What does this fold into?
Amino acid sequence: MNRRQIAFWVTLVGFVVLDQLVKLWTRHNLNQGQALPYPFPGIFEIELTYNQGIAFGYFQGKGVLLAPIAVIISAGSIWHAIKHPEESRWNHVGFGLLAAGALGNLFDRLVFQRVTDMLSFRLIHFPVFNVADSCITVATVMLIVGWWVEASKRKDPPAEHQTVQAQ
It folds into this structure.
């Protein structure tokens, strides 16, 4: 296992643990719908809500039926990290975040039949979300940027090749 793959596993395990600890703290310290005006009152607060669907509350009551997708995403991320050790650390961390987000919410769906959400961005009335959701969003951006950078490196011919063509 190389350093890039270690970064994948540290990211995956670290963010699953962080997600579950934040959810546990929230469930034990707030009642459903209760909000704390922290860290930024009226802008970004902690509020306990539950989601029995998927992102943004779609498919309420059917979140458990989508559990196989989380398993596929997680397994695919793990497989990719193992089979592509040469890929950048950036992409390994992206896949680690993707798997962590999928597993964090999968755990909630299987154990509690709903996902615990607590991060409320009130400034724009954004749906309440959690650490796992953030992992999935950040991972998606990271992987798109990582693949774009890699693709642009492959398209640019080496400098000596450009010189030969110019002559």
The first strand starts at residue 35 and ends at 40.
